[in-house]
Design goal:
With about 110 residues, this protein is α+β, with helices and mostly antiparallel strands. Helix content is about 35%, strand content about 10%.
């Protein structure tokens, strides 16, 4: 009989086992750190979730400068990465990602 190794990662979910205390810990720390590094946000400060519903997001109008094609693609990639987190384990950011997803076609550099 072959002894298989313990699983440590599956579909970008990290799995840690504490056999003594019989605890299974599943998280996405590596993926989150990788996403932050990809978009130059490694040194950003965290914010509590969920986002307050009183925040007002606006579509691009005359006051905002539209992002160039590269900026637009980076914005779309960022939202896609956050969507992956929602599907995995981070349901607490669903509302915020949903709100920012409304601007995928015309993101602006002004908040």
């Amino acid at each position: 009989m072959t002894v298989l190794r313990l699983i440590r990662q599956f579909l970008r979910l990290e799995i840690e086992c504490d056999h003594e205390n019989r605890i299974l810990f599943v998280h996405q720390s590596w993926y989150i750190d990788n996403v932050l590094a990809t978009f130059g946000l490694s040194e950003c400060n965290g914010h509590w979730t969920p986002q307050p519903t009183s925040n007002q997001l606006r579509r691009l109008d005359d006051t905002g400068k539209p992002l160039d094609e590269n900026g637009k693609q980076m914005y779309q990639c960022n939202i896609g990465s956050l969507n992956w987190l929602i599907q995995g384990m981070r349901w607490d950011i669903t509302f915020t990602v949903s709100m920012t997803s409304k601007f995928l076609t015309a993101p602006s550099s002004k908040i």
